[in-house]
Amino acid sequence: MGNLTERGITDMTTAIDNGVNVQALLDAREVLKGAPEAAQFTWRASSKWQNGVHSSVTVQNFFGLGAEQNHRSESVFDADHPEIFAATDNGITPIEYLLVGLAACLTAGVASVAQNRGIQLRSVEATLEGAHDIRGILGADSDVRNGFSDITVTFNIDADASKEDIEALVAQSQKRSAVFDALTNPTNVTVRVA
Amino acid sequence: MGNLTERGITDMTTAIDNGVNVQALLDAREVLKGAPEAAQFTWRASSKWQNGVHSSVTVQNFFGLGAEQNHRSESVFDADHPEIFAATDNGITPIEYLLVGLAACLTAGVASVAQNRGIQLRSVEATLEGAHDIRGILGADSDVRNGFSDITVTFNIDADASKEDIEALVAQSQKRSAVFDALTNPTNVTVRVA
Known about the structure:
The structure is a homodimer.
Chain A: H1 3-12, H2 22-33, E1 40-51, E2 54-64, E3 67-79, H3 94-117, E4 121-133, H4 135-138, E5 150-159, H5 163-175, H6 178-184, E6 188-193
Antiparallel strand pairs in A: 1-2, 2-3, 4-5
């Protein structure tokens, strides 16, 4: 997309407000084109085992724009297995956190793209389903993978736009989604013992 | 692994207790080998856009063992972007939720495998780092992917076991991890508008 066109659309649409500062994002895009080192982020989490399959995971600081950064507050998340797995259900399962991230990432994208395209959103809801054959993780069948078999995301969007424009918003959100990419394409994960 | 060997190891090690009911999991494995339809789970999440790139995601019910199931309580998670992205930072970023899930999944695996192998754990901590070049999501360089470039997980484990046995625990956890698989291998994700 040409920047003049993007700027033009943005200027035309100052009356709509989805709460996204699109101009700041467009400016960041221009700056980071010439400063790739500032675009290198490191997101971090640290976990502590509690008991059984229950653990707590803390997220607070990260690195980006060439410096250490902090979230406004520390967040702690509990994960566990449900009682039907003979566990204590002190939190959602680890794999459900992937659906949380996917829902939030695609929704943030819809809001950002809508702002950029001058579309006022009234509500954006999504329901996600992740199919999972648990024979994989239990080791009951080595032909069954451990992760999701597939994931379906269904959006319900109320906005000042046609069905076609809403579908195009969702398509563009997918195209730029960090989590959609992380789930649909492989990432190298190195696990080591200190 | 032969079941007799697994059972034998379990029986030998009743004195150790990591809080994981390994016998229930081994029994589930045997039952589900003959009842693959009961092993088909559907995990669910539903999200609501709040404003800007802030959304809230709710997790409560799921399907498995042939019936609708519920977590003991509903969990709600906020996701947002940080202030350096001109956003309100009302929660961690969507992509950080992937690290939360990965930490918790590998930790649950370490506890389960340790229980099965008769290894008493005292503490299991992990730090995770996800490298992310944000030029992808900003559309600044079409050669840069949207998701993580790579992820590193570093475990610190205090247990009644040798370094080699601890490394083997972590390796086996990786081998059976739902989230490790979901991040290192592609999953089909369908996104649609209702």
